[in-house]
Amino acid sequence: MWMHTSGLTRRWPMLIVAGALLFGAGCAAANGALSLAVPVVPPTPVPTAVTASVVPPIEDDLALLEAEDRLISDLYQRVSPSVVHIAAQVITMDFFWGPLPSEGTGSGFVIDREGHILTNYHVVEGARSVEVKLSDETQVTAQIVGADPPNDLAVLKIDVPADRLTPVTLGDASTLRVGQRAIAIGNPFGLDRTLTTGVISALGRPLKKDENSVIYNVIQTDAAINPGNSGGPLLNARGEVIGVNTAIRQNAEGIGFAVSVDTVRRVLPPLLSSGRYPHPWLGVLGYSITPELAETLGLPVEQGLLVARLYRNSPADRAGVRGATQQVIVGNHRMLIGGDILTAVDDTPIRSWDDLQEHLEERTRVGQTVTLTVLRDGQPLRLSTTLVEQPR
User: For residue 137, is it within any domain?
Assistant: First the structure.
């Protein structure tokens, strides 16, 4: 074993020397001299940071953005003097302490040089006194001269010189489109004349205030509307009022609602002249027909209003509409059936109770004669009647 080891030890130096001579000979042949070769180590690559080239903004785009900024800024300068801060003093009843004074705040806007201000009804509901602060910080007492609770609108009157008032311009709801600019000005959290911007998110929404009250044809917007904005104007890009900010969806951002300017144009004249708006009334109660209800009751149609009851001497009663003739149990509910099925008013299809209420509110007036289309025993009948004011 040792021999093997020593033998190997003696031969390795000879092989190494021979290899060195051969390598040196190659170098001598190439360079003309014998020299030791130094191994060439390739350079370690150095990572190079690549800088992304910044594309300069297009001048036309910048000009467009600047023009839009100027438009909104100019709009604010024109319209903000019309927006007022409203403080309503309300007495609330406490179980232990009895009547306690409290203050609610909101917004409103000047609609003429006679000192009329439009706001939400809920801003001044139950108020014992109302104070209005103008854009020049002048504070004056206001009187409530008109109110329409169903549409959440109210008119105030202040006594100030006409030259200190800047009325707004009412827009045209027929020109509104989803996606158009929407601008809100109001007093959120007491921050006077705050401007927020967004777009019209939807049109024609029904806004349910409570179990018995719905505001129809409401504008939905994502412009920030916060407590204190109520009663302030929602504007288009021209600075025209397209709605009255009235509500926000709780626990949600970017969902606000405004009473449409069409509703304002319809309700405002009676509020100014008589202090209230007369709502048309038919005097009928019934059930919205669905395909499921139609199948259960064997009705000839899958939509419409199944008349249950009529108010005595109401327009529907005088027209000859018939109510229920019997009572049945459907599921866990008692239903009155056998009455007429209302399918149209003035040839406008009525598919449900909400359809009837919306049609009466939006398209008819007190004193107007309407034609009712009903199904009786499967046969269509046309009945005429004149609408009266809804009892209060």
Answer: yes
Each residue of 86-133: pLDDT tens digit?
A: 999 987 777 677 777 778 899 999 999 999 999 999 999 999 999 999
CATH of the domain at 186: 2.40.10.10
Distances (CA, A) of 379 to 6, 217, 306, 347, 348: 124, 33, 14, 16, 18
Contact 270, 277 (CB under 8 A): yes
The pLDDT assigned to 29 comes to: 37
- Domain count of the chain? 3
How far, in Å, are 177, 231, 254, 260 from residue 106 at the CA level? 28, 6, 19, 18
Residue 216 pLDDT class (50, 70, 90 cuts):
very high
State the Cα–Cα distance between residues 351 and 362, nearest whole angstrom.
16
pTM of the predicted model as reported, rounded to 2 decimal places: 0.79
> Residue 191's domain spans which residues?
174-274
The secondary structure element, H or E, covering residue 109 is strand 98-110
Residue 318 sits in a domain of what CATH number? 2.30.42.10
Helix, strand, coil shares, percent, the chain, to 5: 25, 40, 35
Catalytic residue among 85, 107, 152, 260: 152
| Residue 152 appears among annotated catalytic residues | yes
Instruction: Tell me which of 82, 107, 116, 122 is the catalytic residue.
Output: 122
Question: Does 230 participate in catalysis according to the annotation?
Answer: yes
Which of the residues 201, 230, 260, 314 is marked catalytic? 230
- Give catalytic status of residue 163 as yes or no: no
Rounded average pLDDT over 261-287: 97
What are 356-366's pLDDT values in tens digits? 999 999 999 99
- One domain for residues 384 and 296: yes
